[in-house]
Amino acid sequence: MAARVLVACKRVIDYAVKIRVKPDKSGVVTDGVKHSMNPFDEIAVEEAIRLKEKKLCDEIIAVSCGPEKCQETLRTALAMGADRAIHVNIKQDEYEKLQPLAVAKLLAKVAEKEKVNMLFVGKQAIDDDSNQTGQMTAALLNWAQGMFASEVKLSGDDVEVVREVDGGLETVSLKMPVVLSADLRLNEPRYATLPNIMKAKKKPMAKLAPDDLGVDIKPHFEVLSVEEPASREAGSKVESVDELVTKLKEKGVL
Ligand code: AMP
Predict the structure, then answer these.
(1) How confident is the model at residue 130 (pLDDT cuts 50, 70, 90)?
(2) Does the Cβ of 130 fall within 6 Å of ligand 1?
(3) Which pLDDT score is estimated for 254?
(4) Which residues pair with 152 in a beta bridge?
(5) Distance 241 CA to ligand 1 centre (A)
(6) Structural fold of domain 3-250
(7) Global pTM value
(8) Average pLDDT of span 206-226
(9) pLDDT of residue 81
(10) Most CB atoms within 10 A, among 88, 184, 226, 240?
(11) Alpha-carbon span 248 to 251, nearest angstrom
């Protein structure tokens, strides 16, 4: 059985942007800030494309939940090699409060609707660093899960996943349907070529609302305050151990 893969692509503030907190501490500034596909999701898209190139996957569907601009993120996935896309439209103010459980419910419904047998997500979104969506979606669907994948081998409906765990590498054997999450070392995603960017403009993009999927996206917790990390004092260099000891005594550490 070849895989039908749904890949979740989140639009996040670009990794190279310096994040600024809103003056009212309700969140971070997103207006006029460069956004890109979450880097781990690019790795997930790449892995799905490699499965397709090995004829182990029939179709790749990219999905993004968020405001209109997510369509740009989906076009990137299409230009990389996804076959079609689904945009679950969520207004900007609701998107800023969107939580992993709500995304998991949306992804689970899309996965069922599209009859996929593999959902690929990134190990975490670099904006909220939640690392929850994949696990929650696997639980909602009651599918096997292989999180933090650094190697994926597919044969029939057997999926072997090498996982990056604290103590090293763990290999697990799963049966499809599965939810996988891409870790950094899984692959190096390709860049979309200009001809493929042009072709991607003609690939199908369906639009849905959370209501169409019967999902209530209201938040279950309230963010009270978002703060900048405390700035650290500049360090200083010492020339010798004696100098270090003297300085530590001066500071009252020794
Ligand atoms: P998180 O649990 O927020 O760290 O996100 C983990 C992964 O879930 C991301 O790398 C994406 O693949 C997926 N995901 C999270 N939020 C969204 C979203 N709004 N739209 C599409 N995929 C998402």
Answers:
(1) very high
(2) yes
(3) 79
(4) 161
(5) 48
(6) Rossmann fold (3.40.50)
(7) 0.92
(8) 95
(9) 98
(10) 88
(11) 5
